[in-house]
Design brief:
Mean pLDDT: 80
Number of helices: 2
Structural class: mainly alpha
Radius of gyration: 26 Å
Helix content: 55-70%
Number of strands: 0
Order of helices and strands: HH
Oligomer: single chain
């Protein structure tokens, strides 16, 4: 069954919209500066310091590492949330196109050949 020319035109616009949406999303995400971490690196004591100073330094290293790990985990979780939000948005658009514009069930594939 041939696809109606009007539907082909709409699908082309949808493809252009999705490319534009993706570009805007990437630019928007890269334009936002993530909050810098609030972790303070310990200061290494001089070599001639006593064992107590060195033990304190080693304890501070553990605290610093835990802070860095927590910061990384927080940013990775935020990244997963943003990825899921983007996927949900595109899925909502594709559902709309399929249901409201009578696009083929395999929309947006197959890709057009020139």
């Amino acid at each position: 069954m041939p696809i109606h020319p009007r539907l082909v035109a709409i699908m082309k616009r949808v493809g252009i919209f999705l490319i534009g949406f993706t570009c805007c999303f990437v630019c928007s995400v890269s334009a936002q500066q993530p909050r810098q971490f609030d972790c303070a690196a310990p200061t290494r004591p001089a070599d001639d310091q006593n064992d107590e100073s060195w033990q304190k330094f080693l304890d501070e290293i553990d605290v610093f590492q835990a802070c860095i790990n927590a910061t990384v985990e927080r940013h990775q979780a935020a990244s997963r949330e943003h990825q899921e939000a983007a996927r949900s948005t595109v899925d909502a658009w594709n559902r709309f196109v399929q249901q409201s514009l009578n696009a083929p069930e395999d929309f947006p594939w197959p890709p057009e050949t020139n």
